[in-house]
Amino acid sequence: MRHLLLTVVLGLILMPAQALAGTTLELAGTYASGLFDESAAEIVAFDPETKRAFVVNAHEGSVDVIDLADIANPALVTTIAFMDYGDGVNSVSFCNGMLAVAVQGASKQDNGRVVVCDADGNALADFEAGALPDMVAFTPDGNYILCANEGEPNGEYSIDPEGSVTIIDISGGLDAATVAVADFTAFNGQEAVLNEQGVRISHPGSSAAQDIEPEYIAVAPDSKTAFVALQENNAIAVVDVASATVTNIFSLGLKDWAGLGLTLDASNKDDAINMQSWPVLGCYMPDAIAAYEAGGTVYVVTANEGDSREYDTYVDEERVKDAVLDPEAFPNAAELQDEAALGRIKFITDLSDTDGDGDLDRIVGFGGRSFSIYSADGEQVFDSGDDFETIIAERYPEFFNTTDDESAFDDRSDDKGPEPEGVALGVVGGKTYAFIGLERMGGVMIYDITDPSAPVFQDYVLNRNFAADPATPEAGDLAPEGMYFVSADQSPSGTPLLITGCEMSGTTTVYEIIQ
Fold first, then answer.
1. Reported pTM
2. Domains with residue ranges and CATH for the chain
3. Does residue 245 surpass a pLDDT of 50?
4. In 349-393, at which residue ranges do the beta strands (DSSP E only) sit?
């Protein structure tokens, strides 16, 4: 690994990981749905009492229940259908004998439901959620169910529901449950201020509450505070759970690749691994996030995927080769716009033209190709820099930045690289580990994050056979999305586990965590 680097930029502190230490994953068993590229295995939850995993099967609009009593031979027990409640299952969470399921409405712009079942799939209660309920989670104390309602617009952008967080208080039991909504209407009229602060409000016809799109929820260990990833807004909202109030929104900032001396491969047309310090800023835009405590302080871990908005009447991405670059900012524009340089990379239109004159004053790309750690008030204390692409280049040079549905060399370099999407945290042997799933390349990056300011890279585990047709079971796990950590005391095997749901291959795989 490269030498330790400490750089400060835009008020953020970024440090590459230290040297290889050794905790890894060992494949235990896989349940294969037999469906390829059908989103048949996404978000994962687990019940330690019944030793069952609950996996979102978006293709069927259901939840697959998988027996993990024998982790070497995962077996389908049953499938729980939710067609009576809406038109698609997006997320699951399990706690104290209850399975919470996020079900979207007849259209994405309609309000959805949070359905609560027992471990056998018997419905116990259901509650109204907002538009496009995308992620559901119990608080650690089991007293609340939280649901992130993304509120995506329709294709014409004529209907743009407000993003929100549904908070269901079940502390008195399901029969006495109450529902509250943490919304973002208090930020309406502050769109310009939010943009100045780095909280991206991009669609010109939408209010802040409409433009904000909650993606994922992480809850502090004390169950009092929720952190909500606002992916397209490049921000995190802080929510007081008891009062259902958004108390803060903080920007995640931009990653200055060249300023930090970091490298990335920005082209899929150069026929090479071409890691350079390009003049690009990365917009982190995390998908999954997680929260943990270290030294009495709460931290938030983010998987910096990046995501664009592509609708019939509004698209926020273009390629650099098709743009006009400001001649003062980019005197070597012609060189940079070559397809083997930055010409192929996609930039964020509203963030790259800072003065509104139609040319690019800077190049802001999608995602950070990394994971980061933030304090609860928004200070970045760590970012993995260019670790992911560097490690992939060292270990899999023939399939560097491949994609999830074919084994094509350098296919995703212009599109967010390996694309970190999922993250799970777990304590093993007194140390806290982060497991980060890479959607396109596949596999899991493992870091010891016990010290939030100095994580230590452990291993990269990739259960993928590049020689096999991706559409066949022999190809292994493609596009890990949801991941779930099982502690040793709750594990069927007595060893800590990581369960992954892989969207492209439709597989649910169990790993033992080995130290």
1. 0.95
2. 7-306+367-514 (2.130.10.10)
3. yes
4. 364-366, 371-375, 380-383
